[in-house]
Amino acid sequence: MRRSFYWPSIHTEVLREILAISKAGTRVTFIPGNHDDDFRKLAGLRVGEIEIATHAVHVTRTGRRLLVLHGDEFDSLIKSNTLIVSAGTIAYDVLLRLNRIVHWTNSLLGRPYFSLAQHVKSRVKNARHYVDRFKRACMLAAQEAGLDGVVSGHIHRADVSCRDGVMYCNGGDWVESCSAVVEDEHGQLSLINWHELCAIEAASIRQAA
After folding, report:
1. What values do phi and psi take at 127, rounded to 5?
2. Cβ contacts of 122 within 8 Å, gap of 6 or more
3. Measured CA distances, 52 to 30, 65, 111, 185 (Å)
4. Phi/psi of residue 28, each to 5°?
5. Is the terminal CB of the chain with fewer CB neighbours within 10 Å at N or C?
6. What is the rounded distance in angstroms from the CA atom of residue 67 to the CA atom of residue 145?
7. pLDDT digit string (tens) for the chain, length 209 residues
């Protein structure tokens, strides 16, 4: 937000919805990341009914205790070459712009959503190694805290998996994958994808018609 400020009206609508559910009794915790780092100065405070924290512990209905954090705090552990990091940041910004063009084209042609950024990153060897190092760093932090797993973000790579008895969850993002980690009434964690949900709803409407 320091480099460029982009705030369409839909963002305000999302915030109003979150505020509404927090006022209705749902516990909401805001964990800032590298894109909204300034809010970390407010950690420990509340804005209305919303808590601001650098990390939290979520307990599932099955009693599993999960460390919740953004994940950029591990950057210094898994990044070594500043030049490569800078080049990667520029390349990522370019991919996101191209991603919008691909999405717009697919929408016009009636094709399903396709993330160019995710496709390219999944095939770049250094990107795959980075994701794996990030996962290991997150899971180690959970183990050192005596917890059962971790929920993070940051790397824009949705995943729910388990390694050596430690659970790793990454919600992905709402820019590329449009995904999130959810817990059902039985305490099971899984990924949801906005585009898949829209396709299911559209199919239901067609069947009903």
Report:
1. -65, -40
2. 128
3. 5, 19, 40, 26
4. -120, 125
5. C
6. 8
7. 566 677 889 989 999 999 999 999 999 999 999 888 899 999 999 988 999 999 999 999 999 999 999 999 998 877 654 444 444 555 666 666 777 777 667 777 777 766 656 666 666 556 778 889 999 999 999 999 999 999 999 988 899 999 999 999 999 988 778 899 999 999 999 999 988 888 888 888 888 87
Rounded distance between C-alpha atoms, residue 131 and residue 62, angstroms: 28
pLDDT tens-digit map of 151-174: 999 988 899 999 999 999 999 988
Contact by Cβ (8 Å): 136, 194: no
Measured CA to CA in angstroms, residue 127 lies from 46, 112, 120, 193 at distances of: 37, 25, 9, 22
Distance from the Cα of residue 5 to its chain's centroid: 20
Residue (of 68, 63, 67) closest to 145 by Cα position:
67
Q: How far is it, in rounded angstroms, from Cα 14 to Cα 17?
A: 5
Number of neighbours of residue 148 by Cβ within 10 angstroms? 19
Count of Cβ atoms closer than 10 Å to residue 179 Cβ: 22
- State how far the Cα of 46 lies from the Cα of 68, in Å rounded to an integer: 18
CA–CA distance, 4 with 172 (Å, rounded to integer): 22
133: buried, middle or exposed (CB in 10 Å: 19+, 13-18, 0-12)?
Answer: middle
